[in-house]
Amino acid sequence: MKRVRHRVAKGLRITALAFLVLLAVALVTHPGRVALKSGALLVEIFPDAPVYPLRLVTRAPARLAVSYTVADGTTTADVYRPAGDGRHGAFVFYIGIGPETRNPNVVRLSKALARAGVVVMVPVSPELSRFRVVPEEKEGVIAAFKYLSAQEYVDPDRVGIMGVSAGGSLVALGAADPRIANDVRLIELFGSYYDASSVVAAITVRSIDVSGQRVAWSPDDVPIKTFRDMILPTLPEADRPRLAPLFAGKVIQIPPGLSAEGRSVAELLINRDPARVPALLAALPATTKRTLQAISPSAEIDGLRTELFLLHDVDDAIIPHTESRAFYRAATQSRDRHLTEVQMFRHVEPTGIENPLVLTREGLKLYRHMFQILLRLT
Predict the structure, then answer these.
(1) Across the strands, what pairs with 207?
(2) Where is pLDDT greater, at 21 or 202?
(3) Does the chain have fewer CB atoms within 10 Å around its N or its C terminus?
(4) Domain endpoint, select from 272, 293, 314
(5) Distance (Å, rounded) from C-alpha 59 to C-alpha 334?
(6) Residue 155: exposed, middle, or buried by beta-carbon count in 10 A (0-12, 13-18, 19+)?
(7) What is the pLDDT of residues 343-360, one digit of tens each?
(8) Which of 151, 208, 186 minimizes the C-alpha distance to 308?
(9) Mean pLDDT along residues 56-63
(10) What is the number of structural domains in the chain?
(11) How many CB atoms sit inside 10 A of residue 318's CB?
């Protein structure tokens, strides 16, 4: 027994020594430090975690309320700045629709990124706060990027833009603009769409094409209401109250008395046959098509030069995960591109995973994704 205990003790000493050596190597190399930060940052994504290691070894960041000019007006933002001096990599963090800049998940992630050494700027978008997705929002993206890049505590060569949901799609439009296209270090798009028309099509037919197979898809109320409020103003005023009930999918007949423009939209809304979608989209009023195109990254994809990171939950009921797949395939002009598909969010909100094997598998995917981003910004 003494010999067994001696061997066990020796084994434990060797293991402990190896761990300390690996830890020392990790601490003195940039990839090693990033690997440790990424693991700690991964925990911060989820509320009510039993422990938050990053908070134990880093100082709390400062939160600054700032204002800056956008077009002819002024807007505000929260900036989360790492403790200490020096210049840091940075992120403009564009949220999705709704007044979500102080959402607990947004605040927690912003603080965690700042603890990991990244400056985070969360702009307040008046339009997105009112659940409106408009092409003019790209001016806000550009203005925020320029403001953040000019700050003395930011390294202008390491500034990226992160956007979630529809905010990510608008981020892509801004990042493709020639005014900043060559200066953006990377963009991270989480649960975003590539083409607005294809989302409308998915909402109407209640299915998506996944690797050549039609798969049932039940949209949440959020995209239905968002696209309803976007499309109706492009139509004659008399058509709007007649068409509104069709968006929810509970009415599948064309109302009487519609104009020709209204009827073309109604034809699309009541259609459940995927084969008819291209022709029905082509028949939409010119104003409606211009509106959908103007908010679609697909229209500006050739201008996207930066490195592209795409993250999407495969069970997303607000924006189909196939949108990120289409984005990935089309972004051939980007510096590099990465697609990570997971099963651990409700659109962009973290969910609990009870199965430890699933949690480990999905967590590793997310860890690799976050590691690559931090490696470039820190």
Answers:
(1) 216
(2) 202
(3) N
(4) 293
(5) 36
(6) middle
(7) 999 998 888 777 888 888
(8) 186
(9) 92
(10) 2
(11) 22
Query: How many residues are given for the chain?
Result: 378
Mean of the pLDDT values across residues 68-74?
Answer: 89
Whether 187 is in a domain gets the answer yes
Domain extent, residue 210, equals: 196-293
- Residues 108 and 41 sit within 8 Å (Cβ to Cβ): no
Q: Are residues 287 and 329 in the same domain?
A: no
At residue 48, φ and ψ (nearest 5 deg) are 65, 30
Round to whole Å and give the CA distance between 129 and 167: 11
Q: What is the pTM of this model?
A: 0.90
Which residue is it, tokens 């981020």? 171
User: Measuring CA to CA, which residue among 161, 186, 77, 80 is closest to residue 126?
Assistant: 77
Look at strands 307-313 and 186-190 and give their pairing. Answer: parallel
pLDDT at 20: 40
Residue 79 · residue 119 · CB < 8 Å: yes
3-state secondary structure string across 144-189: HHHHHHCCCCEEEEEEEEEEECHHHHHHHHHHCCCCCCCCCCEEEE
Are residues 47 and 109 located together in one domain of the fold?
yes
Q: Biggest alpha carbon distance in the chain?
A: 94
